[in-house]
Records
---
Amino acid sequence: MIKIQDVCFGYNEGQDVLQGLTLEFDQRTTAIIGQNGAGKTTLVKLLKGLLKPTGGDIWVAGVNSKDVTVAQLAGKIGLVFQNPNDQIFKRTVLEEVMFGPLNMKVETAAAKQQALQALEMVGLADQTDVNPHDLGLSEKKLISIASIVAMNTDIIILDEPTIAQDAAGKRRIAQIIEQLSQEGKLVMTILHDMDFVAAHFERTIVMNRGKVVLDDKTREVFSHQDLLREACLDTPYVTQLGKQWGLPETVLTTEELISAMKRPR
Ligand SMILES: Nc1ncnc2c1ncn2[C@@H]1O[C@H](COP(=O)(O)OP(=O)(O)OP(=O)(O)O)[C@@H](O)[C@H]1O
């Protein structure tokens, strides 16, 4: 669905923030992790067409991002920004979530239907008339997710969706990701929460200083404690407990840890 070939990008000449990335994305739920400044947000802005590569090529659904405008790419790829205040600007939740489909020239009735379905998915179907600016950060994040889901793109990128979410909010985000993935969409997510990554993502890509240093099944990635440490990242808490218990395998959830601990040693 997305192919990236030798992509370089720098905000300032001579200072490449991304250095020759080559990646292919398929329908697996994919987490992108890396310390602050690793280049994660820059990468997804390039995918969305908000930035253009200074070298290399990006194809989204077979189309080279250099040959299309941001508006043309908007029908293929949706990006939920890290800060919902960068995205929200309408006076009611329903207007906000309808804006994307209407902007894509969807008829008003269908746009409303898509918006209501998206709000149902994020658990805010009863907040349609509320001013989004009166809501808390966790709800604003859910509204910004609904706004992108309502546009019904095949590719959805979430930048730090778990920030400001309590345990129930995180469970909701995990359900949304799972549902979108089951609908056949590519869901790519930037995250700092390693426990969330371990529990919910099939593939994990680790970035460090503008390069991909690991790209594999999530369990495989979290078995490379040394490489992760070099990238200034921790393994999930439950994985660390498993290692301290002396387990040879890499566990990713509490269920896996408990079942492994019950085994005779
Ligand atoms: N608009 C900009 N102008 C100049 N430099 C920028 C700009 N945006 C980001 N950078 C720099 O590019 C590098 C990569 O930043 P980016 O935001 O992509 O990293 P990140 O991995 O998403 O970090 P975080 O986890 O903190 O969001 C950093 O050194 C950052 O300071």
---
Amino acid sequence: MKVAVAGAGAFGTALAISISATGPVTLWLRDAGEAEKLDTTRENARRLPGARLPDSITVSSDARALAEADVLLLAVPMQKLRGFLQDHRAQLAGRTLVACCKGIELETGQGPQDVIADVLPGSPLALLTGPGFARDIAIGLPTAMTLACADAPLGEVLQERLSSVTLRLYRSTDVTGAALGGALKNVVAIACGAAIGAGLGESARAALMTRGNAEMTRLAARRGADPATLSGLSGFGDLVLTCTSEQSRNYRLGLSLGQGDGFDPAVTVEGAATARAMDSAARAAGDDMPITAVVAALVENRLDVPQAMRHLLSRSLKEE
Ligand SMILES: NC(=O)c1ccc[n+]([C@@H]2O[C@H](COP(=O)([O-])OP(=O)(O)OC[C@H]3O[C@@H](n4cnc5c(N)ncnc54)[C@H](O)[C@@H]3O)[C@@H](O)[C@H]2O)c1
Ligand SMILES: O=P(O)(O)OC[C@H](O)CO
């Protein structure tokens, strides 16, 4: 089975390194100059400095490399996924597509699995999600993530090929639940970072994580997911990691909001657009998503952190 990773950011590079331990893999990036540099130096100095690319990784910017793969891992940011699929529709047709991005498309409110189905209907697809920082995966620290695929036999094949001795993949057929867990944990991480950054304390963070988890589970169940998925790696697991580590870009954006500092707009922070997309969708559907609503307001500068927290605390008292 020929495997390629599309997108040589932090995660795509880390996945290629991990998968190359058990077989050859192609790492595809769109920029020919960057590809040549990566191939020569064998290091992604910009996105993943210090991690060496093993010889079993072929670096390419040739679109034919996409067409030659049986399985393609899509490691581009969520808001870029549709454009990537549209640009390479011909090469991607018939491939098994594994979305590795976490988020909701701002324009449509769709998750990665829906965007793939929209652009390339009928493509076999899966989702790779769950708690795992690119650097940890690249340097071979023990990591467990979720491979979600509605087609159970295909899920088993992908689980087997993409796992390694240090990256342990668990299988699920609940693609909706896995996608929503991965998308929404980033929103809660922004809220947690904001609380810590503003000096509101660890108790506030614990409250946000727990009520965030309730919000994620409620929404996912309403969309047909199994609530148990949200208690697994792709939900609770990733929520814990992202809400407690300064390695997380979503958490760091929250910290800077709480501290009143600026944040580099070039950094990939999926939770910002996802909060806005989910807030609109929740309002339209009449879903109650208070944490998502305040994060959307924070990233749009409609509220500051003290106002956001006052808003959450002044809601009517309820049963847990
Ligand atoms: N970094 C992590 O630890 C990590 C872990 C798990 C999941 N993810 C998810 O992986 C996705 C990508 O994150 P990342 O950390 O690799 O981001 P990144 O910012 O490091 O890299 C994104 C890469 O995508 C490329 N790209 C953007 N648009 C493209 C296009 N149209 N065609 C081809 N390439 C394009 C960029 O050039 C860049 O190299 C996100 O959804 C993120 O949530 C990241
Ligand atoms: O850096 P973040 O916030 O995008 O988080 C990376 C991964 O999603 C953690 O599982």
---
Amino acid sequence: MDRQPLIKLSRISGGYEGKIVLRNVNLEIYPNDFLGIIGPNGGGKTTLIKMILGLLKPASGDIAYSLQGKRTNEISIGYLPQYNTIDKKFPISVYEVVLSGLNKQKSLFRPFTTEQHAQVQRTIARMGLQGLEKRAIGQLSGGQMQRALLGRALVSNPQAIILDEPDTYIDKQFAQKLYALLEEINRECAIILVSHDIATVLHHAKSIAFVNGTLHYHPDTQVSQEWLEEHLTSV
Ligand SMILES: Nc1ncnc2c1ncn2[C@@H]1O[C@H](COP(=O)(O)OP(=O)(O)OP(=O)(O)O)[C@@H](O)[C@H]1O
């Protein structure tokens, strides 16, 4: 069995403008992992995600990616950002949002292929957004918007997806569907889920990382009452 981690962070430290936000972080993500990330506001969860996505360079330490046991410069990672970071006035339709998830795979001087458009249609159907393809994102409900963004994260069949608070603004019924869908996706794709809802993380994730200036990893969700009390009282 291939036990090479898809993503490996070794002794990572970093932050912004000389201010260190995360110190000495070690973390390995394997192909079928479902890691739940929890921690207090300002603890560094989004900073960690930015580093994994390659958007923020660590001040020190190493981030390595592997595919089928071989080290590679990058892997495909789908990202669902926090809802409040999206500009809802941006004039873009549901179809275009999902299609934009394929931008990296598109040849610079060629239009999207028929197969890529078919991939977008399949993803829109999977997200339950049929009939809303042409609707501008400013005219979507919070839940529809989250589904469009999840579609964008998934349309390229990435090796991993990172979801930052995905169940904000979605109703219970869709939340259930979302987690059932994530379970299915997890058979082919590693999942990193950031959530303030500890019950959700304990229920759906396979392992937990607590992030507050550094990272404490727990290999399963069978955490003791003491561990929870020690780490979560400040969340
Ligand atoms: N672009 C930035 N420039 C400077 N400081 C930043 C920047 N982004 C975040 N920070 C600071 O880094 C620290 C960690 O922020 P981060 O957004 O990673 O925390 P978080 O755990 O994701 O918080 P939340 O749960 O509120 O989303 C905070 O003190 C924050 O103010």
---
Amino acid sequence: MTGVLAAARDRARDVLDPAFYDYVAGGAGRERVVADNERAFDRLALLPRVLRGSAVRDTTVDLPGAPGAAPVLVAPTAFHRLAHPDGELATARAAARTGVVLVTGMAATTAVAEVAAAARAADPAAAVWFQLYLQPEPEVTECLVRRAERAGCTALVVTVDSPVFGRRERDLRNGFTDLPAGYAAENMRDLPGGPPGRTRDIAMSPALSWDDLARLREATALPVLLKGVLHPADARLAVERGADGVVVSNHGGRQCDAVPAAVDALPAVVAAVDGRVPVLLDGGVRRGTDVAVSLALGATAVGVGRPVVWGLAAGGEAGVRQVLEELLDEYDHALALCGARGNADLAPDLVVRRGGAR
Ligand SMILES: Cc1cc2nc3c(=O)[nH]c(=O)nc-3n(C[C@H](O)[C@H](O)[C@H](O)COP(=O)(O)O)c2cc1C
Ligand SMILES: CCCCCCC(=O)C(=O)O
């Protein structure tokens, strides 16, 4: 990786506590999937069309609860105040000012109400989604959902790839298993069954099922997207059970170190969903051309995780803006080079395997 994103990552490595840098950069096991998410894009090439472009290109996408958004989202990543003192507030302002949907996480170090308010103060039209892990106690999940609704979030993103926490060898080596003193997952404060005024731990449960999703579906009118879908059969089930979108994701290689790269899993999920709901992707997106490849293969939009944290660590709000603007500018440039007048002109025939047919 070179360019703005690599410079942000290098700066982040210089300024961050090494254990937190490793927590962000690292992944599960031998980190094969972390590497493969990026390498999979390197294995794909764009096959441009000529003499059919436009000087002005339409790059906006319609997402659940976010019409006219940019095709790049801020994927949910935990603990932004460990990257920069302004934490999630800086990320929210940067996303809002670039027209990018922010998916703020249950594991944020700033409460969702404050994050959403900061985004709207920067741009009243800003869309913020809330990511959650379904909790084993339905009343805890419901309380989190009500907080997101009250905060004005326009969609929920339920992460389903984490029945247990990934085995992250860097974190085990570094002893990075708890937040340092003075930081907390603020959305987890004052929840049912938890200590008053204090935070509960986020639970991951292998006992969750499609019934828990059905309960959530009934508990809220907000659009619900499922994040962490790789198998086409699960994508089909998600649509049948009322999901408003699926996110093809392997959690940035942080959960199972033996799964396919996100972009390699995308086409089968797109085929299974068959246009019924938007399909998003995250994992390894580092260039505007990666955005173009993903949209050509059927994604409606893509999320970026680590690059946003690197930008935040490198320069707070301005650093995140630089990262997002670079990706969006590169994407628009890639569209021009492919002879596309907008996202709608991207199609699977524009993507081939590097060195051979797809
Ligand atoms: C530091 C870090 C924290 C993350 N925290 C969460 C989280 O709290 N919830 C979640 O669903 N995904 C989380 N993710 C996964 C991201 O949402 C996303 O799937 C992944 O980062 C995409 O890959 P990329 O980093 O290569 O862009 C986290 C990823 C990182 C790097
Ligand atoms: C049990 C702590 C939950 C934090 C979740 C952060 C996360 O998903 C990650 O990949 O790290």
